[in-house]
Amino acid sequence: MSLMSKVVLKDIVPCRKADLMSGFHLILFHVNRVPPHLGIVYKQKYYSLTASECQIGIDFDPIWRLIRSKKIETIVIKIDSAPSQEFISAAYQSYEVAKPNQYTCLSPIKDYFNEYHHISPEGIQFVFDLIPKLYESNLIDEVRQINLTSESNEFSFELLTYTMSEIYSRIQELQHETLHV
Question: How far apart are CA 173 and CA 176, in angstroms?
Fold first, then answer.
């Protein structure tokens, strides 16, 4: 395993639902777990590749309610990006579900940033690889949090690092749970 550099998100402020009403947002769910889950919110529509389905342009309201009711520790990164919804949908349409040793929730997000912002997917295996490239490209407008606690209103958060095998194990675990419900 290569040495993973630490990624620290700074100047994080609380997120309200109104903050997500406009703009393009990279969402990191369960940030205190390995691995976190990733999705995109754009114009109140949600996009995500999960172990059981590919969610393209679904209403964000139920996701917001789930984050709040289950107290899911979430980071919201507002990205300086204004694509068409068709462009985001296209990044997801070539995927059905996350698959161990093939696709993760990051796969369509990498495709999107490669196509729309010319950020090469080379060397990006994890969200903690992507975020520094977004900073380098001046694409991060602000970082917000939901359900993370801090003594102050603004704080920093260090992303957890993990391996591909941990991601693939989690996908398999979720797919196994889905089959046995």
Answer: 5
Q: Which two tokens stand for residue 1?
A: 């395993």
d(CA 110, CA 119): 8
Q: Which helix (H) or strand (E) holds 129?
A: helix 127-136
**CA 133 – CA 70 distance, rounded (Å):** 31
Q: Residue 127 belongs to what domain range? A: 8-179
Number of folded domains in the chain? 1
- Is pLDDT at 58 greater than 70 in this prediction? yes
Whether 172 is covered by a domain: the verdict is yes
Using an 8 Å Cβ cutoff, are 35 and 173 in contact? Answer: no
Return the SS3 of 126.
coil
124, part of any domain: yes
Residue range 139-161, pLDDT digits in tens: 999 999 999 976 555 689 999 89
